Each structure stands twice: as structure tokens, then as C-alpha cells.
């Protein structure tokens, strides 16, 4: 099956946020006092969401300003490409999925990951609790619903098929848009590819009787990362390092105090206005925290470059995803990690 690389925003891109829409207004913030030369715009996909709480905490708790960076947070919505603002210079850094960044490089984008955001990949195969599908190999002969043949959902589906010892011919891949919950509930597909900290949480919160089949721990994909352009990083090495270290500090603050993280997020996400929405957001946050931790401990910014090489090998082996095997050494670097 062919892969359509879209210029428009992709489904999860990195976090699997299901509510795609126009950017919500950002809360007003006091001037940090940093000079214009220290100004950095950090891009976040989709509308405000608790999965971005480390960035909100790093901003509102002055972790960025204490590191000498005057950060502006910018959300972009469904009418804008994932890396469009980064390439145009409207954003300097974006939190985005490593697999999508590597594929985007194949189209000529000078992207480089300079730090880890999610340590673990959140992709899971979700099936009804009574499904006969127990393992990835059991997907043979069954249908899998995904938004479309693009983005992290698609790459995770390819990985699930590969890890199950199957080929694309062994399964029926159905492009169902962003209707995974309804399609699974109504029996339109046998399984869906979703994310453990979003789709799965939302289904369970809604009362659906489902379970998840995880991808292998060594899935050859890289999840949410701190992405910039090589040109910007090389021109601003101190700012790049500061953004990485302060964002990682924000992640560890969220791990240590989820309640505070939710309180901070509420200032950015106006939908968190009642106890139900707050409870749902906390459920998402609690499912997100393990993805950010390093082997059960504090988060670290240093990237697993071997995993990036594994991803390059994998994506390069699947027909139609990239034109040639990606160069992992150009796609990710730990040069700006101070640990």
C-alpha cells in the first residue's frame, strides 16, 4: 500500500491527541525579562493538552527563563503542517514524533532531534476484551483501523505487523479517519492502532470493554522528541541546550507532582473546566508519565541513538515509506544534551 505524506497535521503525530481543531487562545504571561536574542518559540501540535504539561510547567515555573531562554509557546492546528512553521522559522523547536521527523527528512526537511520527550513508544493495538486476538501474530486475517496511511499510527501499524511476523497482505488495513472508538465499538474493524496514553484511556474512560496488545519493547520507532532544524541548532547551540535541559526538568517536575502539572495545564487548556474533564485529563497524564520515565526513574534527555538507527533500518526496509534508508546520524544527536 502506498504511503501519502501529508503537508497537513497528522494524527497523533506524536501524542495521539484525538481532538484536532483550531488553536485556542493562550493565556497572557508576564515578560520574562530575557533579551530578544534569547527568544525561542516552542511549537506544540494540536490544541492545548495535558500531554504537553512538561512544556507548560517549564514555562510557567520559570524553568526556561532560569535557563536563560525567553520561550513563547505556540500551538498549531489541523490546517498547518507538523513541521511547516519550524521550516519557515516561525517556530524554533517543536515537540514531535521521531518517526515522523525521520520520514519528513526524506522530503528534504533539515530536521534533527536534540532530546528525548517520550522514552517509550505509546503505540498499541486495541481490541475488544473478548476478541480472539491475543498477540500481534493473531492479527492475521483481521482488519486494523487507522486514520490513514500516514503518520505515527501508520508507522506503528507497520511495526505491529512486522513484529507479529506478518506482512501487509496478511491483514486488512482500513483507513477510517479519526473514528477508532466508534469503529471498534460498532464492529466495523477487528482492531485499531491507537496510543496507550490517549485512545486507550479515552475508550476505557467511556466504559468500553477493551484491552491493549503492546508493541515489543524494542519497537524500531522513536516517539515524541525535541525537534529543531540543524541550521537553528548549530546557530544557537546554547539556546538548544537550554531548551533541552529545561524541558527535561519540566518532565521530571510532572513526574514528581502530577497534581501541580494538571493545575498548570488548566491555565492553558480552557476545556478543563469541570471535575469530569479534569479527571479524564489526569487519567491521560497518569498514562503518559511512564512513557517519559527512564527505566522507572527520572527522565533523561539523552537519546538512544541505537534506536534511531533501528528505526532508519526499519523505515528504509518498508516499500513506499522513504526513498532511501535514512541517515540516523543526521536525524538525531546528543550534542545539545548536558547530562
UniProtKB/TrEMBL annotation:
SUPFAM superfamilies linked: Periplasmic binding protein-like II (SSF53850)
Domain SsuA/THI5-like, residue spans: 49-261
Keyword ATP-binding: no
Gene3D superfamilies associated with the record: Periplasmic binding protein-like II
Signal peptide (residue range): 1-22
Pfam families, sorted: NMT1
A single BP term in Gene Ontology: thiamine biosynthetic process
Keyword annotations: Signal
Superkingdom of origin: Bacteria
PANTHER family, A to Z: 4-AMINO-5-HYDROXYMETHYL-2-METHYLPYRIMIDINE PHOSPHATE SYNTHASE THI11-RELATED, RIBOFLAVIN-BINDING PROTEIN RIBY
Name of the protein described by the UniProt record: SsuA/THI5-like domain-containing protein
Lineage: Bacteria, Bacillati, Actinomycetota, Actinomycetes, Actinomycetales
